[in-house]
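Hi,

Apologies if this is the wrong queue. I'm a grad student, and the batch job for SDR family NAD(P)-dependent oxidoreductase from Nocardiopsis mangrovi produced an output file that my downstream script rejects. I'm not sure whether the problem is my script or the file. Here is the sequence I used:
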Amino acid sequence: MTAPADGAAKVAVVTGGSRGLGRIIVERLLGQGWRVATFSRSRGAFIEETAAAAGDAFLWQAVDLNEPQTLPEAVGAVVRRFGRIDLLVNNAGVLHQDLFLTIPMKTIDTLVTTNLTSPIVLAQACARAMTRTGGGAVVNVSSINAIRGHRGVAVYSAAKAGVDALTRSLARELGAVNIRVNSVVPGFFDSEMTTRVTDANRERIRRRTPLGRLGSADEVADTVLYLASPASSFITGQSIVVDGGITC
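Support response: The file is valid. Your script probably expects a header line. Output copied below for reference.
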């Protein structure tokens, strides 16, 4: 990634930045001096507080990833505000557990649209902006469900596997214009998605994990930020698994 010619900070787009992993990524990027735009369905207290504290370095837009046709305009608003995009973190996603034989078509459509179609549309829109300013990086957040099969999450798993396949193909295609594309593949970590995990299942996961515990959102964010940094300047097309060894 090239630094802005005017000396201004680089610009990141982070989806789902109002809570959880996305919130941590937004906070840490702002702390490192980035200008940050984030999309989420609702504003919430964190967005209000960050907008007041970060001022012109922060932009929030109400975006529903189940409506991918709205995303190019949202990206356009980021470019109009900041003049460039250097990083996209495709973080937002939705998990719904349902048996494959009974899952409704509407739910299938929502899972695929939110977890795969919208990241594709966002990557295209952001990559187009990156080509005008010398390149950038895309970091897609996937899931270990794309690696190991689990009951009740077939559609979610398929969508996340698509994200990893997208990562590899885009790395091939966009490397020529200095855009790196990688994915982070989290295992089980404390988040809203794991709050419904029973104590018995949590203990089972802990026993099966070589490091003997669930991860934290900060540990996943560490890998995202590494892939966004100059320290990873020769890494592209990779899916980095952050799971404490449960898939090894």
